[in-house]
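Need the bound structure for manganese (II) ion, inputs here:
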Amino acid sequence: MDIHEHQAKDVLRRFGVPVPDGGIAFAPEQAMHEARKLGLPVVVKAQVHAGGRGAAGGVKLCRSETEVNAFALSLLGRNLVTKQTDAQGKPVHRLLVEKATDISKELYLGLVLDRKSERIMIVASREGGMEIEELAEDRPDALVRMVIDPATGLVPFQSRELAFKLGMSGSQIAQFSNVMRGCYRAFRDLDATMVEINPLVITGSGDLIALDAKMSFDTNALFRRPEVAALRDPGQEDPREDAAAEHGLNYVGLEGDIGCIINGAGLAMATMDMIQLAGGSPANFLDIGGGASPERVVAAFRTVLSDPNVSVVLVNIFAGINRCDWVASGVVQAYRELNLTLPVVVRLAGTNVDEGRWIINESGLPLISADTLAEAAATAVASRPAMAA
Ligand code: GDP
Ligand code: MN
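Answer from helper R.:
Posting the output first, comments after.
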């Protein structure tokens, strides 16, 4: 789960990381009020769950209240499209108004979960401001990596070593150690999966401050972090994914036209690959999970069909915990209840497969059966209505 920049800054501030003074605004008048309180100039920043706002016109240094008002008016209620969003962008409903910082140097600092070492890894660079993915590609040697041993936690010499590698001196070293400690504790104590400060700035007077902040959290740990769960902003999330989650479905919307209803994340990935191989393109990733009832299968159809691009539905079930007869009943029920007319390809294997196939055949509905994954994918691709030229 992602949170907004202003929320991440509030969290990090609590852990002792220096961040600029600022306030949140939901309306232009409020933005002007915050600017007056802070004193001009201020930086006004669109709050969306995506980076790349600076380059997309979502961050502006304002020298007057009139400028704050105009910029707030131009952003609020609109969608901001950045390099990190899709073509729709993300809606801007709040702005962060901050006291402007005098920048002398922009650095990069990130903490991520490194799956290979199964530990928290620090990634840092002297070249802050730009996107880390680009930096990793263009200048891999500009990145410094360091793994934290969970038995000892972050040890002070690691912070000092990093500070030297980032070219710091004097009181900056102690300040950097403090930032590192705060980020590490916030990460560990709140079940985060990522903390990113980009840029971490050295100001004109030589002090460190976190100018931007991003945090993501482990969704599976939210039950024990109610204070983190409260920071969720559903307005920034795909409503289809939310609706699916309520039915215990794991759904991710994509850009193709073949709707997928599958059990198991691995089979779902394999099916998407097979669709691509057969020359098609999946409209979504969807895992209906284990022990799916007919009702859950109907909910899966509803979710998949809420995407207007879907022209074929492919149901691919390899039932272990699941039961093919339940899934088949769900497919038949969905076809009738939702008055479907588009082609539906069904491939069933595993537990109660004979009963499942019997239900599909006896339904009298024009459902298309397939025996193997490859056949199912090829049939789905071939069943698409002819594309308009
Ligand atoms: P992002 O583009 O979404 O990552 O947004 P950031 O918060 O990182 O801001 C983008 C860029 O705006 C930063 O890299 C800075 O160069 C600039 N910026 C942000 N806040 C300030 C500020 O207070 N003073 C100055 N001079 N520049 C700022
Ligand atoms: Mn940034």
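Comments: The two ends are 40 Å apart (CA to CA). Residues 43, 45, 51-54, 59, 61, 100-101, 103, 106, 129, 198-199, 211-212 surround guanosine-5'-diphosphate (ligand 1) (CB under 6 Å).
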